[in-house]
Specification:
The chain is an alpha/beta fold. The chain is 22% helix and 28% strand. A six-stranded mixed beta sheet has the order 4-3-2-1-11-12, covered by helices on one side. A six-stranded mixed beta sheet has the order 5-6-7-8-10-9, covered by helices on one side. It is globular and about 45 Å long.
């Protein structure tokens, strides 16, 4: 199985999907930069959604910190795009555990316990917008780590194989935390190849 993971498209609907992709994961921020100052922000968000819909591939999507969750959820109804504020999606032997930006700590704890238990016999991928704290993937320009400790705790508790995220544009890249591959995939995206029981993760240049 080949997964295309992408984040922070920010209104860019010219999405280049690699050949032989089976599943697309989107880690939030479809809306353009400074959406409050862009009168076409919702239209541009929908253009990204239309591009994802046109792939006819299964798409799993969460919202980021500048998105329009209600508009996204409404668009995705009865399409090939599965939007989650919090929830899970199974494909083949993989379960994607999803948390959009803004889920409270209490909701996160309660939902994670239920969702990881539901898919305990699957290979799990954690999909969030913000990275975990204190890795290469959350290092801001000013040298500060700006990830979320709550996600570190989820990794420690439930041991997902991969944590896909975005948000920190300057920290696009890979790291490993407690055995989990942390992948800040950015708008160029990354390929996760899970064929033949082998895992290969590659950022697209």
């Amino acid at each position: 199985m080949k997964i295309f993971a992408v984040s922070d498209l920010h209104g860019d609907s010219n999405i280049k999907i690699p050949e032989e992709t089976d599943l697309i994961l989107v880690a939030g921020d479809l809306a353009p930069y400074q959406p409050g100052e862009d009168k076409d922000a919702i239209k541009k968000t929908k253009d990204v959604l239309k591009a994802l819909k046109s792939t006819k591939l299964p798409v799993v999507l969460i919202s980021g910190n500048i998105d329009f969750p209600e508009e996204i959820e409404k668009f995705c109804e009865n399409t090939n795009i599965a939007y989650f504020a919090k929830g899970s999606f199974e494909y083949d032997n993989v379960a994607v555990i999803c948390f959009s930006y803004g889920v409270s700590s209490i909701e996160l704890d309660e939902s994670a316990k239920r969702l990881f238990a539901k898919h305990k016999n699957k290979t799990t991928i954690l999909l969030t917008h913000v990275p975990p704290f204190n890795t290469k993937t959350d290092l801001a320009f000013n040298g500060s780590h700006i990830g979320k400790n709550e996600y570190n705790e989820l990794i420690e508790e439930y041991s997902p194989t991969i944590h896909i995220c975005g948000h920190v544009h300057e920290a696009r890249g890979k790291d490993v935390y407690k055995g989990a591959i942390i992948l800040n995939c950015g708008p160029k995206g990354a390929i996760i190849d899970m064929n033949n029981n082998k895992l290969k993760v590659e950022l697209i240049k």
